[in-house]
Amino acid sequence: MKWSKLTFFSKAAITLLTAGGIGAAVYYLSPGLRTSESKTLEKLEVTDKDVNNVTTSAELPLPSADLSTSDKPLVRIGGYAWNAQSGIIVANGGTKTTKGSLMEQNGINLELIRQDWLSELRNLQLKFIEEFDKGSNFPKEGVAGIMIMGDGAPFYISSTQQALDDKYGKGKYTLQVMGAVGLSYGEDKLIGPPSWKMNPQSIKGSLISTVIGDGDWVVAVNYAFANNIKVNPDPATYDPEAVNFMAAANDDYIEASKDLIKSQKEGFTVPLKEVKNGKLTGKTINKKVDGCATWTPGDKMVFDELSGFTDIVSTKEFNNQMATSVIMVKQWAEKNKDVVINIFKSAYQASNQVKQYDTWQHKAAETVAKTFNQENADYWYNMFKGMKGEKNGISYNMGGSRVFNFADANQYFGITDGTNRYKAVYDQVSKYLKDLNPAGFNENVKRIVPYEDAVNLSFVKQIQNIDAGKADVADYSKKATQQVASGEWQINFDIGRASLRPEGKDVLDQIYNLLIQAETSKLELFGHTDNTGTVESNYSLSSARAEAVKSYFISKGIPASRFQKIEGKGQDEPVADNNSEAGKAKNRRVAINLLN
User: Fold this and answer.
1) Rounded distance between C-alpha atoms, residue 295 and residue 350, angstroms
2) Domains and CATH numbers, the chain
3) Mapping DSSP to helix (H, G, I), strand (E, B) and coil, where does residue 336 land?
4) 190 by DSSP, 3-state: which?
5) Of 23, 162, 168, 541, which one has the greatest count of Cβ atoms within 10 A?
């Protein structure tokens, strides 16, 4: 591919990888030199109970197909072809605001632009800011906002914010998530051979095509980490003991699907430098693409073209992970506060109609088909609900989306119940970026924008004259029996005591991000010790340490009723040899089980 056709993110990765000219060539050709090492991290756990409230309201008239004649200034928002946008699309009556639509009724003149290339969405937003900087309040070029996966926001905002700071000076323009209008519920997924699902360890050594840093990449990373499998963060190398990623062309999820199809049907391979234990071996591996992380209609493309593939894991399992987030520049939003507020208000009103009335759901599918200029209304209607298929005896799932009404948005961001689900996702993915450093992210981007600077809920909070509804509350009164997940963490305590050390609290803060996303699950805590001291004292110590962990979580807002069992196992269940200090350290741990 020519350099001129490469995306910003691809150029950044290539520039980093080839920096130093001859020195870089020596680096890649010489065996034994150090490179990015594959890593394991804490996994991202989410609940199987989605944020899905319904506020009872009368059925409203459907929007017409006739374009609005409003004289309001035109606002543009760009986004992927993604069914979780159904609410905002039907609120607008389609690509452009139509007569009788909720957008028109709320004084909005909106155009929705499909753009599947993340790099082009970025360019459109930067073009808008450039025109805004010249004095145009409603630029005729670019887009005022983009809609992407919320778990992709740390990557997008941090990288694009640096470009803004470099061009205009730090802090002049600030990109922020202003709210969310939907949620992926199975639509985004990791696709691979069924063996990956039956034996997760078989995913080692695979090459997966995806938009690195975006939400589908996170789905695949989550699956690896949940099964204690290393991830290779360097797309230029191949680690046979890790999951490896290939950057899809143009940062396009459809291209990710095409890469897999092309590799499986035509034998397409990718030349990668082999790496073991963080060192280059000097070998080049021509690797086929084994799977992809993509979403609808990318998943349907794969299942139509290939046999022997299925969905391994998706946002149905990680269902709080991927909200349809709207990102705008803060300075423009504040100058046009009523416009931003009423865009969200219209989307939430329409979404509540979609939740209640099949006529609205069919209308949403019709407007989605026209907006994306792909397939037909029946296709998007069925994909919104989620579809099952089977090919040569292998079953698979496609689609699955949610739309946000006002109650959903308030609950998801913790406005009504104090549990900020999105902050947990944002912080966890930020940790992935920092620790994994995909495609040299940390070298190319000076800092990850923290949640507090990246998210601005002030506009959603100012929405008026709309029924907020009542958010669902998790019920912990029943005994849970089915294990959802189990993880063991080394949490540092003072020697021979149950008092948490500062570094132990840091680990618990990471675990807390996981727990609030698995909010319907009940918890079991099991403390373990090494064999130092007496057997009896170690039972007491391990129990006290488990209780200390419980107390810390309660202090952060986890309900006490959520804890089903607290038990000290003492030194009875070692996972390593107590004859070494390293082994003893591994045995001093707390296990946390999540059950439904």
Assistant:
1) 24
2) 3-39+188-314 (no CATH), 74-186+321-461 (3.40.190.10), 483-595 (3.30.1330.60)
3) coil
4) strand
5) 541
H helix intervals, 437-534: 441-444, 451-454, 458-461, 502-515
Question: Rounded CA gap, 524 and 219, in Å?
Answer: 25
Half-sphere exposure of 333 (CA within 13 A, CB side): 27
Distance, in Å, from the CA atom of 506 to the CA atom of 135, rounded to the nearest integer, reads 46
Rounded Cα distance between 284 and 273, Å, is 5
DSSP assignments along 284-297, one per residue: EEEEEP-EEEEETT
pLDDT per residue as tens digits for the range 503-548? 888 778 767 766 665 566 778 889 999 999 899 999 999 999 899 9
Whether the pLDDT of residue 24 is over 60: the answer is no
- Compute how many other C-beta atoms are within 10 angstroms of the C-beta atom of residue 114: 15
| Number of C-beta neighbours around residue 279 at 10 A | 14
Contacts within 8 Å (CB) and 24+ apart, 385-392 = 386/185, 386/186, 386/187, 386/316, 389/303, 391/303, 391/307, 392/307, 392/308
CA distance 16 to 156: 18
What pLDDT, on the 0 to 100 scale, is given for residue 13?
34
At residue 43, the pLDDT reads 42
Predicted TM-score (pTM) above 0.85: no
Q: Is the pLDDT of residue 595 over 80?
A: no
Rounded CA separation 515/489 (Å): 14
